[in-house]
Amino acid sequence: MVSTKAEKYPELIQRMHNEGHLIGIHNYVHHSNWFMSPWKVRKGLENTAKVIKSITGVTPIYYRPP
Description:
By secondary structure, the chain is mainly α. 52% of the residues lie in helices and 0% in strands. The longest helix is centred in the last third of the chain and has 19 residues, at 38-56.
């Protein structure tokens, strides 16, 4: 899940969670990690996890890089 989309459509994320779908982190924005500093990548992952947890109540554990 890209966090900017999760923030824009929280009801869709909640519905996915309620239906039993696994929700993982893609990144905060859809930029390749090759073009970001390690600090920025880590911060994006942490922020995305917080957004998803605030919507679903569950911290995501899966990650797929863009």
